[in-house]
Protein 1
Amino acid sequence: MTDPNCIFCKIARGEIPAKKIFEDDDVMAFHDIRPQAPVHFLLVPKEHLATLYEAQPAHQQALGKMLAVAGRLAREAGAGEGFRTIINTGRVGHQEVYHVHMHVLGGPEPLGPMLQRRK
Ligand code: 5GP
Ligand code: ZN
């Protein structure tokens, strides 16, 4: 369950470098290459999964673990007073990389509003 052309599969296989902060059998965490906050890392399932639309019960362990380890990793990365998790899906969600990933974004300063309010 790996896609030879997928950039996050390549990172999970160690074929291209990333600033890895956590890895176990199910998930991997690494710093985003274009950070949008002082703390900005990504948590991904090691198995290829293009979007949340394709998620099945078999993915529960990896998807659940992404949430279960986010707080500890955020604290260790310097976001001890709060953080935001985002999973972008598809065109409407502005997903750029089609391997499910959860952004973890943190301060120290409070982040901006989640979405621009519609007028
Ligand atoms: P999306 O818009 O799909 O939710 O976000 C994709 C994220 O992946 C972006 O924040 C982008 O900076 C990050 N990204 C894209 N390519 C790479 C890469 O090769 N290495 C790392 N570490 N992050 C990447
Ligand atoms: Zn992949």
Protein 2
Amino acid sequence: MAERRLQVTSRLGLHARAAANLVRVASQFQSTLTLQRLDGNAEADAKSILSILTLAASRGTDLKIVANGVDEEEALDAVIGLFSRDFDETEKVDGEKFTHATSELRCKGLGVSDGVVIGRVLRLQEGTHNVYRAEIAEADLERERRRFRAAVRLSRRQLEAIKDRAEKELGRGHAYIFDAHLLFLQDAKLTRDVEDYIVKERSNAEWAAKVVGDRLLSIYTQINDDYLRERGSDIEDVIQRLLANLTGEVLKYPNLSEDAVIVSTDLLPSTIAELNLKHVKAIATDAGGWTSHMAIITRGLGLTTVVGLRDFYQRTRTGDSIIVDASRGEVILHPAPETIEQYKFTVHDPAPAAVEANAINCGPVVTSDGVQITLRANVELPTEFQAVNDFGACGVGLFRSEFLLSRPGLMSSEAEQYEAYKALTIATGEYGAIVRLFDVGGEFGSDVKDRERNPALGLRAVRFNLRNKQVMRTQVRAILRAAAAGRLSLVIPMVGDVGDVRLAKRVIEEELERLASEKATFAEVRIGAMIEIPSAVLTAEKIAGEVDFFELGTNDLVQYTLAVDRGNDKVSEWFRTLHPAVLYGISRTLEAGRTAQIPVIVCGEMASTPAYAVLLAGFGAIDLSMIPAMIPRVRNVLSQIKAEEAREVALKCLAAATADEVEELVRIEFRRRWPELFPPNALPMAAETVQ
Ligand code: PEP
Ligand code: MG
């Protein structure tokens, strides 16, 4: 056995990156290597990053290093050498800036609503705290351990990808923190302890990971050194990732402070539904685009939101001060006092439409040349049902029912669904509502290995329903029963052709028969098809023969026509709603509906944007469904234009070759024809094109 004494001299002490380097050096030797604090009993294994970090050795700490084994002297030399070289940190300044910047930092994203908010960051990582204890049978313990190891492997792959990206885009100095995260995942103190806990306590993997993670975190919160204590959030990140990969569960934050600005990599719509919205002032996320579901919902809720901020989440800490400027698509972290002063004058709530709603007009709008256009509401959450009437909607054109599901993988019962649909029916009265069958995808295979490589092209929407008939039957029964209380229709999402429609209708008919034989109270409903993928557009005439109405989902139509992932910020500049190919698809679908004499309700985000709504009217759309808060604005614009003029513009657009050409045409024509209705900033291009 050999030992030496030394003092930690580096400015930041034995922090994550230094510890990662120490682990790397110590692991090259066979001897055991232990670090002991001389001011107490704390000791750490120099080959375990978590163990080293819990030593909380800040600058000036005296340590004893003990080596034991065949190469003990060489091991001690190497470790002492590393300490004397300040842990080989060459890019310290940059690296610290990345994780701990306190100077003002501006990041550009995409504003998907209005509003400017000054607040404090609340970091929220998807998929965690609702972890429950389950007792695992003796025979299944090995499977549970394997499940945990699979989640560790998946987390490692994810972190390697993040690290690569950070290295490429930000440089090596910014990527180092992910080295530490990767080492946490390899550390026996985490992995072995979790596996031991599973076996000893016959516990499910989620619970074991949470207990072990909490223990590590509690050690961190007691550390005296501010900088080292903050590194606890790195461990938290890793544990959250593991839990997310194990469960896909969602955080609950009941104790939000008044001025919370939620910062996240991405947010599930169900997480937004769970937040206490009274205390959320704004949202800023790394991922997302104008039509990602999260953006649609936050816009509907009038929440100031900036998406597509790339690596912003990693730069923040809970409690940091922040300005979110959705009007300019910008966030400012650690704003300087002068910046806050400037912004104080511009802070405003993003829901001016609510004021307009006082002078509410109901019923369809009539253009100045006499064309009647029905304006309906899209709703996602039961809390929005009331807004439908507040904003003068003609009922609900699209209820995205999947948001009834509180979290991925958890289905709600027929009784719960029935209550929700009945409440919707009652709230929407004479106009009624259209319920979409669950438009869910791969997340219902909650097992990590079941996740699909390409969920947007996978077992989604009608395909999911047809493959999971029990889920579909439960929902269909709930809808048919609730239909007895008022006017309810049902729409089948993302059909590829009339074959999908026929299969879905067969299930609906079977449930109608079953309800009749049970002598239940129910009513028949009108059945529609969502037209949102090119194959459905191109065979729309055939589909029209088998349904009562179409719903034109322009969000997915853009995504699938242009092959652009609607939620991927990296390709948001290719997401062009006004692409001529999309306009052709819209025009063709409307035409097919007219020929078959069935209604076509346009329900994508396009209908919520006044200038686009005019263009849709130009293509002959007479039924639009949109975010409730936008109805008064769309009504105002449509009531002042001539549909015939809109048609002239629409036809010109159809003849264009590119989205740029269409946008230019729209700018010129709209300004010329309706200058008072469309000042430059009211034209949609600014909001949606390349930022
Ligand atoms: C659409 O795709 O346009 C649509 C209305 O549905 P969602 O946005 O929910 O996919
Ligand atoms: Mg869709």
